[in-house]
Records
---
Amino acid sequence: MRKLLLLCAMSTLLIGSMFSAITYAEEPKIDDGIAVTGWIVGTTNDKTIARPKEWTPDINNPKPESQVVQAILETNAYIPCYIRMDINGNDAQATVESFGPGAISTNGSSTERYLVFDNEIGGFCDSNWKPIAAGKNAEVRPGNDVYIRGCDSFKVMVYANDSFKYDVVAGPLQKVDAVANAGDANLALDMRTQLDNGPWGAVVTFASNSTVNIGEKKACETLTAMHQFRVPYKTTTAQGHYKGNITFKAYLI
């Protein structure tokens, strides 16, 4: 029993000697039987473990775009060209369209729909396009201020998704079975145009085959033109049938 008490006493002295230099943190009382040793600088036991001084906690709700992966893909679009022309007049409508480069669309002359200059269905007008009379036996004398109007006005609408121009190509009407070797050799064609609901423009005379530019537009715009035509009824205009062509032409520029 004495040996056990002696051993306990020696152990107490040894332990007290070992920890006598340690400072106890947050220890307001020294006699409550509780000893708390604060964290002090020590040594690292495993040198292979990463131990950065600063690090980011992996919380469940990170800030927006705090961690991103992305791939950039270049995009290219190639839009084909398109052009459309609508012609209204003479109780009919024609639509001509071109889809894509190199596509030339032509609506040829119709044997059922055509522009007629006649004293009955076109009628006579003066140099100001004012109607004079119309009828099979209308009593209108030929003269330098007398014309026969076309049977209708023609409305042309052109749209394209690229810049474009719109022209009218025409020439004088040639004799078919009119009196030969008498009077004028052919029948000149007059035209006037109202562009985009503006005023009527000056009269253009097709005394020979020629091209008249009516207007041009930027991409994705629409051009609207109203055309009226007439032929002269002069003392030098021989009786009979005359024939010609008018081409409404739109094209990209």
---
Amino acid sequence: MLKSRRTVGPGRTTILTPIAVDEVTALNMESVAVLKATPDRFAKLSFSRGGDGFDDFDGAVLRSAALGPFGLLRYQGQPSGTISVVAPAGAPPVRINRVVDLVLRLGHLSEGAVEWSLRPRPAKGAASKRQAKAPRSVSAPRRAVG
């Protein structure tokens, strides 16, 4: 199993530390995204057999200092060509999106690989909310006729 893995993103380095797959249940993890990918896409990670009390899976669970624990699980019976991204239940939307972004970078995948996500994915290159809102026009109040 990999001791730690450094992944370099735009302007940052993330150190990932593997943790045991049985931590999925202890950490109360839930699926936050499904990707069109297979475990072999993440060849540098070590996948182990495990189970979460519902289904058996092959998984790799990691810890990031910035994002905490997350994992990649390929459940038994899951549609072929897909893998689930898991994070602690109740994680805030921003954290979920950052975890999914990190997993996409780890697998050298594009945003198009996200088949389903628990939280809406922000559009890449979209204007910020302040820029996206057009100024409202102000009209004079109407006078009642009568």
---
Amino acid sequence: MLSLHDFFNPKYVITIHTYNTNIIRIFSKGENDNHTTSAEEIPSEVKKLYDFEHFFNGLLNENRYIARSDYKNILSGFKELHKYFLAIRNGGILPEYCLKHSIDEEKLILALETLKRANEIVDKHNNEYII
């Protein structure tokens, strides 16, 4: 299981990126695309967003009560990333950004919204776990 210390270790993050080639599958526009995107072509911000989402989803898949301390440090690191994508979205260039990097815009927005609502989602998870 990932620990928060491991998650922020740059050596470990590089390992996540090289081990998980599913980044392309999750963020690409579709299976019929003629353009193939390599992991090196995917912007580091998208890779970081994937790492945040991957960690968070892993946490939600655990059959236990999730304390805020389990993910608080992850969310604090996400704030800057959220600001980055919010600036792109508010600037009206998110569609071009996604097109340029073969990223599914809807999935990117969904990942951002999911992590933005992390506390609410964890509360729901915890309520369902208790009941």
